[in-house]
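Narrative of accomplishments. A recurring question from our advisory board has been how the design workflow behaves on a single, concrete structure rather than in aggregate. To address it, we present the structure tokens for one chain from the evaluation set, followed by the sequence designed for it. No filtering or post-editing was applied between the two.
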């Protein structure tokens, strides 16, 4: 089930990024650039989360990594809202999913 959910999230993130990069709204290129950089940073940290949590059993580092991912995803969402509202809303929904992941990570850490 989780593989289906993660595949959906990555497809949604890819759609949001593609929609943002294809927008030709004058005066909003700064928001496109900043939002895309925030998203790339969050994806890099997302790439690191899996080996931390499952491979290394480093639950404390994985928890903080998840919070960093959430932070950059929310920053990207605010930037995307200024360009294309649908992409911004999708990124906020993804941030809500990350809250759920952080809670599960905290349970693994403290239980």
């Amino acid at each position: 089930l989780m593989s289906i959910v993660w595949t959906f999230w990555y497809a949604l993130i890819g759609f949001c990024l593609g929609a943002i990069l294809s927008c030709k709204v004058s005066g909003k290129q700064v928001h496109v650039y900043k939002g895309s950089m925030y998203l790339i940073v969050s994806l890099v940290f997302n790439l690191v989360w899996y080996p931390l949590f499952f491979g290394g059993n480093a639950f404390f580092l994985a928890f903080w990594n998840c919070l960093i991912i959430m932070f950059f995803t929310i920053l990207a969402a605010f930037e995307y809202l200024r360009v294309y509202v649908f992409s911004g809303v999708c990124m906020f929904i993804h941030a809500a999913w990350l809250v759920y992941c952080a809670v599960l990570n905290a349970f693994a850490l403290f239980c």
